[in-house]
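stuck on this:

***
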Amino acid sequence: MKQNCRSATARRAAQAALSALCLGLELCACTNGAAGIAAAAPATAEFRLPEWQEDIPVWIAPSAENDAEGRAQPAQEADASVRAALVQWNIEAVCGKNRREFRALPTDAAVRLEVGRNEACAVLARPVVRIEYAEPPAEPADGGGAHAALPELLFFRPCGAVYPFQTELSWQDGFAASCLSDFYAYALRSGVPEDAAVRHASCFNWTKFSSSLALKGAAAEAFYNPWQLDRNAILAAIAARSFSVTLLAQKKSCAVASEQLAGSARFVAVSSYIPQNEAAWKSGTFTLKESVPEEFLLLPRGGISGPAEGGCGAQEAMLLAAEMPSAAKAQQITLALKSIPIYTEAQ
């Protein structure tokens, strides 16, 4: 409880500092190719969506059975992925106080948006998915009921792009686009004129920000998840024109075994940051950062079963919030579960 209070206090202090900095924003001379913002004219740009991979790889702990030489048997290949069917994309475009939301179909490879020419615009796309399993749920033994369709889940982090520097949405740049969206929200809430906020954001070097994320990720010892960075410190530095790539360094993070999060061989963990799942499938670990809660989807291994004898309900997926007290105490992770029904019986 004390730790959560300290985190909330630090967050409020950082936001207050950011608000104070935003109040002092001034028009700047652009040096990154975003010239002519004051007289920006509307433009139509096409933004490419990432190709959705329905089969999300998940780590399965090796079987307890050993071969003739005493070695653990590898997991069955059929258990190595969870199918997440894409229902739609929830898309948000943000430039200054102009926020637009709309939907895109799973078959859409790109979307076209009207944007201010050379004005920094955050484009974010969150996938709405339906979890599916290779084996359908068993019918109730008495034949008196059926299972409803899988619910739609808005769980995964968004992909994104920052226009005019990018027009292809990626999972990594979902974090950059989210930072820009938050920058506009904080600046306008602090009383900064919209044109000053847009000009300031458009002068920031988002191209270098994106390339630095990629470089930091390539050099990190544990898997690099940009969503674990100190967002408030980044926003304050952008507002004060004091941003340094050192703010993108991975700190106080370490790899944690997947089975430590799942807590049971009957479950598998799925990260909200899509790229981390493939890395975890290869390494058997997820990255956690000290005192930063991270959400995972905890799914029953091997599919969902129907009601068991004695009237028990179907198995459920769980939303798992994992928090590591410190990198030195990676074995003392606190876990909090919230039930999310996946299959339910029709009434």
In short: The helical segments are 2-23, 172-189, 194-203, 206-219, 231-239, 258-262, 274-283.
